[in-house]
Fold each of these.
Amino acid sequence: MTDIIQQLIDGLGRGSGYALLALGLAIIFGVMHLVNFAHGEVITVSAYLGYWLSIHGTSWWLIALAALGASTLTAVIIEFVAFRRVRGAEDFTMLLTSFGVAIVVRAGFSMWVSTKPRQFDKPGWIFNTVKVFGISLEVYDLIVIGVTAVTLAAVAYLLRRTMFGVSLRAAAEDFDAARLMGIRANRVISGAFALSGLLAGVAAVMILMRRGQAEPGMGLDILLPGVLAAVIGGLGSLSGAVLGGFALGLAEVMVRAWILPEGFTGLTDGVVFALIAILFIFRPEGFIRVGHAERV
């Protein structure tokens, strides 16, 4: 039983980052019907800002706040500079735009900073452990789960209890009808990108505390599990994105701990993808079926 609880905590800790990334993707997909592969670049920007602040002796708490602000601002800038110009274009054009932004950001850091990873100090307390009913739990995992729970609760309140949330959900349901009802497209879409960037920023802080490095291509590598989690949960479903993130994190930990023998943990991703393929055979729409109005 102790081992089961230990693995569940580890899986929830891993899945928390996936859930936040998937939720940010689901928000953009709901409004624009776009799988935004540039979403990971806000993490890259936050990582390099964290590196720069770290080498200048800034505390981790200030680095975390700066990363949240940088990710939110970067997402809004990406929407204004890139996606606003192609809004209303074909879905494929929008998708190519997201890849183009990712490539430009990666190339920019490679040319003007370095192609090599930049290391910076991680907070020492993340590896501390606490005993709870005889179970050794990492402080990092407990903080990640707690921060994610608070963040998800705040997002749920925002979407259900505020005018912005009502506007966002209306736009996701039927954007044209929402505009006819007086909802301003630019304001809603910019707000959606800001919210998704903030969620990516929270995920970035948690990821950077563990990784302690910045590199040009990290955004896409980190984002891919978030995309997968969003698809597993049901692309466009906010609750499905969260569920898919936690399911993916738990699956990775369980496969590594209980299915694969020692020495074969390198096959974890392959086994997890096989399980996902089986899921899609029986439920191709993911955990939650989502109906979308046609984007015009």
Note: Residues 25 and 36 are 7 Å apart (CA to CA).
Amino acid sequence: MSSPRKVVVIGAGPAGYVCAIRLAQLGQQVTVVEKEYLGGTCLNVGCIPSKALIAAGSLMHKISDASAMGITVSGVKLDIKKLVDWKAGIVAKLTGGVGGLLKNHKVEVVMGTASFVDRNTVAVRGKDGSTKTLKADDIVIATGSIPIEIPGFAFDEDKVWSSTGALAPKRIPEHLVVIGGGYIGLELGMMYAKLGSKITVLEATAGALPGQERDCVKVIERSCKKMGIELMTETLAQGFDHKGGKSTVRVKTKTGEKSIVCDQVLSTVGRRPYSAGLALEKAGLAVDAKGFLAVDKQMRTKVANIYAIGDIAGQPLLAHKGSKEGLVAAGVIAGHKEEYDARCVPAVIFTAPEMASVGFTEDQCKEKGLSYKTGSFPFAASGRAMSLMDTEGFVKVIADAKTDQLLGVHMVGPEVTEPIAEAALAIEMGATAEDIARTIHAHPTLPEAMMEAAESVHGMAVHIFQKK
């Protein structure tokens, strides 16, 4: 049996810590370097805390609508400090759990900022100024990404929030201007709307959620309107002035320049891979024009013993994609036959209603010249959705017109971030629309809508009428 390889993993986010644990499970000697906090952006200032606050906003919204069920609630108050403390408690449990897992797997954790000395050596500078040198057979770069700043809106987490600042509020803004109508901007904008803020969203493109299935996006845009959210498309934020506790945001629209007075700005125009201070050149590496490191299917960079996983390894910048890449890299380092060969990566968006997608959109099918058929089923015809008082949206199935193989599944509606896993598995296994239609789905449940949408591809949905 060969001796264990010494591996240094730089970054302890969903890509890095998953990779480190799997390496340890496979018998390797592992050290993780983390400059700020275990769990990375996702667990600390991203996916998890945002979903906690979104859940709180949704609960308040449901309470306000509960009278339709005969439940009348009065005197609902929001204690923002308690809400933030509750969110922090969830984060602490999860990050503590990551720390415990690393310890139980005998993974060494070194806190500090890593930089390359050469292709086999990493120097780690601690917050106290001390430096530790780590030698390794293999090195895995999992440094994640950071929010993009735009000119005129530098993050100070006071007047201008990044997503990090928006997840640790000291107050609920009266009027929040959100720059960017992508998934982060709409998730947080809708959350604050439910908590009582007036929301204005500025989006540079012609519609919200660029790149997503347009039929689903239309439902989200209608929901924004119902919630009183002003969505200003083809609008560019130019800068702002702050005086007397108010910010005046200057914007350029297709009809001219305008000013918007608010008391808080949130900038969410995207994220970029983080590699500052790594001294990649000392290891013979360089990022491309967009900041990514090129990797092969085994997550190797051009330097054979150095791997890159997660956000720095390319789009999509999603935690679950990074975790999968971490498992692949760990297997390769341990000598297993592994490669990243995912057919699809699901995307989930926690707007109101929720949205989830996997596989090709209709636009992508057209761009690729694919012959396809679609079927859809509305949640308005779902008994389970009715019982939840949440019937907005639908499930759309896209199938190859010749083979019936699933090409994409797109959902918008109640809790659709859960059943999208079935669609991802189906595409990964090469299932057809008929396979889904012939699979017995439990009743009454929301995933029945996917079965009916698959039937709809062939004009055979039972619980809606389809003209022949």
Note: The mean pLDDT is 97.
